[in-house]
Amino acid sequence: MRTTRSPMHVLVIGGGIGGLCLAQGLHRAGIAVTVYERDESAEGRRQGYRLRISPEGEYALRECLPPALVELLVATSNERDDAGLVAYDEHLVQQWAPAFEDPRGNAPDKIDAVDRVTLRRILLAGLGDVVRFGKTFERYERTADGRVVAHFEDGSTAEGDVLVAADGTNSRIRAQARPWDVPRDLGVRTVFSRIPRASAVDGGMPEVLRDRFSYVIGSDGHHIGLMPMTFRNRPTEAAARLWPDAELVDLDDYYMSVFNVHGEDLGMTDEAFFALSGEELCALVVERTSSWHPDLRGIFRHAEPAVTFAVALRATDPVEAWEDGPVVPLGDAVHTMPPSGGVGANTAVRDAAALTRALVAVERGERERTEAFAEYQKAMVEYATEGVQMSLKIAQWSIKKVQDA
Ligand SMILES: Cc1cc2nc3c(=O)[nH]c(=O)nc-3n(C[C@H](O)[C@H](O)[C@H](O)COP(=O)(O)OP(=O)(O)OC[C@H]3O[C@@H](n4cnc5c(N)ncnc54)[C@H](O)[C@@H]3O)c2cc1C
């Protein structure tokens, strides 16, 4: 038990969704935490725009954030999307409309989806110098007394009792601790983009596609998802009311669009695909959907090239607990999954809430670290495996060439 030791200091590598949510939970519980993030600012890298929030993700965010930030998250979230998901063929003939079960389905403060950058800024609010930007982690070493030292590319170091690997899919901590554990390439290549709602609607977007998550599966192996992000309130207005220091920025309502194609149907090498500019990626989507229903073709002419980018989908399969010690993982670092299931970020914040509980119990002397981390990882492996399998099933359903391991 920790009763005779000095207070615990937790080092978190990665200030993405999971790392920041953990920092909020620990900060709120009075546990010393420092987050080291390689990005220079909250804007970050290309990771998509709109995030669906699952019931489990919503519970976790509510558990880790102070009430005023939860209110801010609700106020800036997507207008409720009660219609759920609808799948069409390329002629815009409805194929499928699954209902989602949601215990908070009718709650007026339900969080259905959020803008990623707005979420990240909310997760940063109130953390002050807990978060150090521009710090790229390089490697760690364990000390003789069971602590851990993180080394950064700028030559600096930081020492703590626990090192949390929240550094995402390409985790350097995982590469050092478990070099064999590399997420599998699913072969799917994806183009993410943002389409301003006003241009799409003014340009004749059909009513049926406007206010719900629509998925179009072409018989030619290409498919597209369209997800509306309609802010309940302007982020700066909501922040002025609820947390004036949160550095939120306003954004017009938009659709996030996702275009998936299997690499074998791409007609070009990965090298050529990933070298395409935003303009070229938009042109590729327009060209590949040129025989689709005119209402569908038209929408992509409004995509914003400057925020269009390509990614390769990957998955950690199987998800495994890491070895016992002061290094513990969270989020994509331990369970990467394709975005098809919309649960990667939700699983990361679920980890953050569970790990907060574990660390609080250790700090209070109620649990041994080994026991608390083992329990956290056992539960995490179980629900993350479900998330990975569900996401793979959806990826396989829509792109038949996605193979089992
Ligand atoms: C295009 C796209 C759309 C998605 N849509 C959804 C969705 O709708 N719903 C959903 O639940 N999930 C979605 N996901 C998945 C989701 O984004 C991830 O699962 C989630 O971001 C994982 O959180 P994380 O904190 O583990 O990792 P990340 O959010 O990736 O954060 C990792 C952080 O670590 C930092 N970092 C990395 N290396 C270093 C280093 N060496 N030193 C310091 N810092 C480092 C990175 O800069 C980053 O900020 C989507 C993913 C993509 C790519």
TrEMBL record:
Keywords (A to Z) from UniProt: FAD, Flavoprotein, Monooxygenase, Oxidoreductase
Domain FAD-binding as annotated: residue spans: 319-370
Record's keyword annotation contains Flavoprotein: yes
InterPro entries referenced in this protein's UniProt entry, alphabetically: FAD-bd, FAD/NAD-bd_sf
Transcription regulation keyword on record: no
Pfam families registered for this protein in UniProt: FAD_binding_3, NAD_binding_8
UniProt protein name: FAD-dependent oxidoreductase
Organism: Streptomyces fildesensis
